[in-house]
Amino acid sequence: MSVLRPKVELHCHVEGAAFPALVQRVAARNGIDLPGLFDAEGQFLWHDFSSFLGAYDQASAVFRTPEDFRDLTFTHFTSIAAEGAIYGEVFISVDHGFASGLSYADYVGGLAQGILDAEAETSIVGRMVATGVRHFGPDRVRAAAEIAANEPHPLVTGFGVAGDERMHHPRDFIDAFRIAGEAGLGLTAHAGELCGPESVRAALDHLNISRIGHGVRAIEDPALVERIVSEGVVLELCPGSNVALGLYPDIASHPFRRLMEAGVRVTVSSDDPPYFGSSIGAEYEWLEHDQQFDEAEFAQINRTAVEAAFVDEATRSRLLARLTD
Ligand code: ADE
Ligand code: ZN
């Protein structure tokens, strides 16, 4: 029997991890219609980043109760555990939580219950990174940081910003990241996905982050790659997502290996699996088959991910030990 390669995922949006079957089941439970959300094959219908965000919002809106959110994380974490994941972080969205009609405490409480139930069943360890949505504006992102800081939860260990990178500048989010950082949350920001290397440089200049969501387009600027290496910043790379969104024509041409060989601390994640036809298991397979990654390289990627995880040191030691079991 083949043994599953262990996996660690740092970059997955929890609402973006809801597969069509779960969205339909929860929508039926809550009496919600979903016009135009699915194509003829039952997959989410979108054709560019803006329509992806629209479909994402429509699907997210079916989740209304703590139980719905519990089912979301339970389904996600048990399914990545079945692919070999021993640790996962999910980006939760403070504003999507409010849009469901729940308080932050009930939103996070439901999500946390699913993570703990999945851990009891599979031993997978999970944490949450509270995010603000960039295109909702700096005030909303700051409010997201404030609530994450003022209502701490043991499984919410990070803060970040997601959404449309083309809107606003990192300096508009300085306060939000300062508040979250002072509350002891790990910091990450999406950059260098839709926008070029200048967006990565600006995020590093202003937000005091240890990780970058994507950051892949740093490859276009060798001096920036050198800076990322020398500062030890970790990239949450999501090759399948980048290909689905048209940044690169295929996995073979994705700069994953070039970044790693330049000395960048890289990790691999699925981002929004059902939208991008990905999964954490598929990402590892793509790297193996289309970029010839071997076991030693996967071990390095996993170690980097655990080193960069937003966890306490005792949990980090346990996860590092599990990687070599
Ligand atoms: N929110 C959900 N998925 C995202 C992505 N790939 N980029 C930015 N924001 C997102
Ligand atoms: Zn993302």
TrEMBL record:
Residues 6-323 form the Adenosine deaminase domain. Substrate binds at residue 272. Zn(2+) binds at residues 11, 13, 190, 271. The record marks 214 as: Important for catalytic activity. The active site is at 193 (proton donor). Gene3D superfamilies: Metal-dependent hydrolases. Keywords: Hydrolase, Metal-binding, Nucleotide metabolism, Zinc. The keyword Nucleus does not apply. Its cofactor is Zn(2+). Binds 1 zinc ion per subunit. Its EC number is 3.5.4.2. It catalyses: adenine + H2O + H(+) = hypoxanthine + NH4(+). One of its GO terms (molecular function) is hydrolase activity. NCBIfam families: aden_deam (TIGR01430), PRK09358.1-3 (NF006848). Catalyzes the hydrolytic deamination of adenine to hypoxanthine. Plays an important role in the purine salvage pathway and in nitrogen catabolism. Belongs to the metallo-dependent hydrolases superfamily. Adenosine and AMP deaminases family. Adenine deaminase type 2 subfamily. This is Adenine deaminase.
